[in-house]
Amino acid sequence: MAEHNVCPWWVGYLLASPIRKLLQNPADIIAPYIRGGMTVLEPGPGLGFFTLEIARRVGPSGHVIAVDSQPQMIEGLTRRARKAGLLDRIEARVVPTYSMALDDLEGTVDFTFAFAVVHEMPSAGRFFAEAARAMKHGARLLLAEPAGHVKEAEFREELEVAAESGLKIVDRPSSRRCITALLQRE
Fold this sequence. Notes:
Distance between the termini: 24 Å
């Protein structure tokens, strides 16, 4: 695996820019996977570029759990969610760098949205094991890594590690500027 290197918190402001929607529209990317009433896990949400759209999609009966090890990211996400009127659907958690701290979610997550984040985790194995434990049987995980940053060989390694946690590939959807796979918990 590539060396663990977390995106600095201040880059979150660039990643949440409305201009980014021209390259990666959150609504288009998540539409096939998320619907009302779902519980969605989003590790590494940054300032909420995808989180706010996920919260809109899950609706008032849904729930988004956004976990990040950088308090500045969670603070920014919380501010943006409050301003958008979506904070009641989002549980934003600051977690340690070595774990997503999801023990209280075992078997409750319908969908995990892992967009450009696994390569930043200190352990892909721990990430997939924790995510799989939190997911319901049959739940899905969208794994997307930036194509210019993560090489195909590294992505294949991530998929092998995911398989060890009981996550099998069910599709290889395309996403602009990303290498992607849709995984399902067995």
